[in-house]
Amino acid sequence: MSKNKLKNEKPDSKKTPPAKDPAMVLKADRVADVKVKELVKDERTHKVLGVGLLLLALLGFIAFTSYLFTWEEDQDKVFRYSFHLMFMGDEHVENLLGRSGAFISHWFFYNGFGLACYLFCYFAFILGTNFIVGRRVFRVWRNVKYVLFGLLYISMATAFVAGHAGFPWGGAVGNALNRWTTGFLGTLGTGLLLLVIGFCWLIWKFNFEFKLPQRKPKPKPVATPEVLVEEMAAEPEPVMEKSKSKKNGLKNDTGVTVIPPAVIDPEETGVTMELIEREEPVVSPLITVIPAAHAPQLDVLVPEEADGPPPFAMNDEKVPDLEETFAPANNRRKNNAPMDVAFEVKPVFEDEPAVDDSQDLGPAQPVSVDPYDPILDLRDYKYPILELLDQHSTEKVVQDAAELEKNKNQIIDTLKNYDIAIQKISATVGPTVTLYEIVPAAGVRISRIKNLEDDIALSLSALGIRIIAPIPGKGTIGIEVPNIRKSIVSLKNMLSSDKFQNSSMDLPIAIGKKIDNENFIADLSKMPHLLMAGATGQGKSVGINTLLVSLLYKKHPSQLKFVLVDPKKVELSLYKLIEKHFLAKLPGEEEAIITDTKKVIHTLNALCIEMDLRYDLLKEAGTRNIREYNAKFTQRRLNPEKGHRYLPFIVLVIDEFADLIMTAGKEVEMPIARLAQLARAVGIHLIIATQRPSVNIITGTIKANFPARIAFKVSSKIDSRTILDIGGAEQLIGQGDMLVSFNGELVRLQCAFVDTPEVERVAEFIGQQRGYPDAFLLPEYVDEKDLEGKEFSLQDRDPLFEEAARIIVQTQQGSTSLLQRRMKLGYNRAGRLMDQLEAAGIVGPNMGSKAREVQVKSDGDLEEILDGLL
Ligand SMILES: Nc1ncnc2c1ncn2[C@@H]1O[C@H](COP(=O)(O)OP(=O)(O)OP(=O)(O)O)[C@@H](O)[C@H]1O
C-alpha cells in the first residue's frame, strides 16, 4: 500500500506539504468532480457501456435458451445451494453458461416471469444499441412500456395456458397473477380477459379496419349550383393539400397514410431509415451526391461497410476505391496522432429540380373568386422559361479526398501546436469552401481557440481562411478553407429547385448556396431592404442580376415594378427592354433607367410621395399592409372610384450608391432613410449596392434601416465591419463568395451566377410580349425650390388646375388628399392646387381638418368659370 502511495506522489511532493488548506481541498474535490462529469459525458464512456449492455443481452439470451433444455438437470442443484451454487467449483451443471447461467436463468424463469424473461434481453439490446450509436435509435420510454406490459401479460398468459406443467412457463409472477384472476373471474373469465387484452393490443398496434360490406350508393340527384359551391368549399384546395402532405403525410386511395421519407423523424417514430429503401444516389463521374434529405451521416473511414460508390471522387480519369485512397493515411496512423481523431465527411446536399426546363414558371394561378384579377390586363403574359438560362460548367461539388486529408491533418497539427486537442473533426464540402467542423477534446475552452484565431489563421495561411469560434448554436469550431476546384452555382439550378418553385414568398430571391449546398432563398419583402457591398470585380453586379432575374421568374408585371438607378450607365441598361412590363419612371421622362443624379433625387422623392399615398389608401381601407390591402381590393371591397387601385410591389435598385452620396449627400440620404424606415408595409423595398463601404457613404442612418446586408470580398477588415459590423468579408475569395447578415445570423454563401447573355435573353423574352402602354408612372414631384419665389396668380396656375377642378366638382369634396390620390400628387402640389381653386372661387376657404366647401355645384357652372379664366 505504502508503495502505491509513493508511486502516485509527484516528484516534487517532498517539497510541498500535503494540502490541508480547506480551500485547496475543495478545489481538488471540484477538479475530481469535473473529471467525473466529463467522463460521464464522454461519448467513449457511452460506447463502452453500450458494448457491455449488448454483451449482457447476448449472455442472457444464451443462458435462457440453454435453460429451456437443461432446467430439469440443473434445478435440483439450484434448489439445494441457491446462489452459493455459482461459487461451488466442484459442482457440474448442464447450462451452457455454467453455474451462473443455471442460477440466473432459474431465478429469472422460476422466481420471475417465465418465458417473458426474454424481454430483459431485448431491453438490454436496445439500450446497448442506443449507447453505441450515440442517438436514440430506439425510443426508450416506449420500450419500457412494452416490456412492462409484456412481462405481465405474457407471464400470466403462459401460466394460464400451461396450467400445472413442471416447467415454469409463466414464472412465479405469472402463476400468482393467474391464480388471483382465476379466483376472481373463473377460468373462463380469465381466458376471455386474456384474449380480449391480446386482441386490444393488436388493434392498438396495427389499427385494423373493420368494414361492413358497402351498400350500393343511391344515384345522386343532379347538383344544384348551391350544392356544387358547398362541395367545392368542402374540398381542400390542391395546393394546400400538397403542402399539408409534406408535413403530415398523404392519405392514398387505400386509406394508408404515406409519409414521405424526409418527413420521418427517427426520434419521433423510433424508425431509422436505410439508404437502400430510398432512391438511388445520384452518381456522376466526378462525385456521388446523395440528396441530403435521403442521406444519413456517411462515415467514410469505414470503407468495408460503405454501400455503393464512395462519396469522394479524386479526378476525372480515375476513381480509386476508398481503401486505396486511405491506404497512406492508415499507414501513417501508427505514428501520427492526428489519425486518432474521428474524421467524417458530410454528404453533399442537393435540391431536386421541381420542373423540367421548358415549364412555365409562373406561380400557380390562384382560383379567383372575384371578378377582379390584376393579371387580367396582361392575361397572355408568359413567365420566362428556364431554357433561357445556362448551366455553367459542372454543378457537382468536387470532394477531393487527398485535399480533404491534407487540410484535416494540417488543422490537427496546427491546433496541436497550440495544445488544443480535438475529439472529432468533420468536413462539409461547399461549392467554394470546405467547412471543417471541430469538436474540441473535453476541457478545451472555446474562448482559448477564439483568442488564438489570428495565429491559427496564420499557421494555416491559405488564402481565404475564416474561423468561426464557436459556430452559433453549436459547441463546435468552424474553419473554412477554400477548395482548389470550385464549382459555379448556376442560377438556373437554383430557380428550378423545389424550394424556389413552390415558395409562397411575396418576393423570393435566390441568392446562392450555403456551405452545405443548401439553396438560400429569401423573401425580399421580409428583409425588407438589402444593402450590398464589395470591392470592384468581386461579383456585385452578378449578384444584382441574380436578384432581379429571380424576381422576374416569379412575378407577373402587374405585381412588381422596378425603379432602376444606374449611375454607371451600363450595368442595368439591359433591363430597358422590360420597361413596359416591369419598370417604373417619373411622368414625362424618356428613359426609365435613371442615370442622372438630379433625376435620382426627384425619383426618390416621388417614391416618398407614392409611399405617403399608399399609406393614405391603406388607412382609408382599414388595412395594415399591402397584402391585406390588395386582398381587399381583389375582393372588390374597395372602390376604384375613390382612388383605390391594385398596388404592385416596388423594388428600388441603386447600383452605385457611393457616387450618389458623393454628389448629392443629404438630398439622397434623407429620402432613402425615410423610405427604408417606412416603406416596408406599403410594399416598397430597396436594394442598394456600393463598391465603397466606408462610413461616410454607409452612414449610421442608412445602416440602422437596412437590417439585411450582403458583403462580397472587400479590401479591408474596416470595410467588412462597416457593412457587416464584424470582420470576415476581407477574407472572402471573390467571384461571388459572400457573407449574408440577415436575422442576426451570418451565413457564407456562393452567389448564384447568371451571365449577361442570359439576362439579355430573359429581358428579350419578356420585352417582346405585349406590355402596358407605358412604364408604371410614379407620382409627379415638383421641387420646392423650383416653385419658390413664384407669385401666385391665376395666369401661373398649375397645368393640372382644370383636371383638379373637375374632380372636386364631380365628387363635391374639397379635399386635398382626394386630389393627391386621384392625381398621384405630392401633398405640397395638391395644396397649391387647392389654393388656386380657392382663388378661382371653386372651393371655399381652408376649414382645418374638415374638407373645404365646394362652391360650384354643377359641371355646367364649372365650365363657365373655366371659360372665363381663359
Ligand atoms: N457568383 C459568381 N460565380 C462565379 N463567378 C462570378 C460570380 N460573380 C462574379 N463572378 C466573376 O467575377 C467577375 C466580376 O463580377 P462582377 O462584374 O459582378 O463584379 P462587380 O463587383 O460588379 O465589379 P464592378 O463593381 O467593377 O462592376 C464576373 O465577370 C465573373 O467572371
UniProtKB/TrEMBL annotation:
Sequence intervals crossing the membrane: 48-69, 107-134, 146-167, 187-208
Major localisation: membrane
Residue span of region Disordered: 1-21
Keywords: ATP-binding, Cell cycle, Cell division, Cell membrane, Chromosome partition, DNA-binding, Membrane, Nucleotide-binding, Transmembrane, Transmembrane helix
Gene3D superfamilies found in the cross-reference section: 3.30.980.40, P-loop containing nucleotide triphosphate hydrolases, Winged helix-like DNA-binding domain superfamily/Winged helix DNA-binding domain
A cellular component annotation (GO) from this entry: plasma membrane
Gene Ontology BP annotations: cell division; chromosome segregation
Membrane is among the record's keywords: yes
Ranges for domain FtsK: 517-721
Compositionally biased spans, kind Basic and acidic residues: 1-15
Any Pfam family matching the protein: FtsK_4TM
Location relative to the cell: Cell membrane
Domain of life of the native organism: Bacteria
GO MF: ATP binding; DNA binding
Annotated residues for binding of ATP: G534, A535, T536, G537, Q538, G539, K540, S541
Keyword hit for Methyltransferase: no
Membrane topology: Multi-pass membrane protein
PROSITE patterns: FTSK
Family: Belongs to the FtsK/SpoIIIE/SftA family.
Name assigned to this protein: DNA segregation ATPase FtsK/SpoIIIE, S-DNA-T family
UniProt organism field: Chitinophaga costaii
Taxonomic lineage: Bacteria, Pseudomonadati, Bacteroidota, Chitinophagia, Chitinophagales
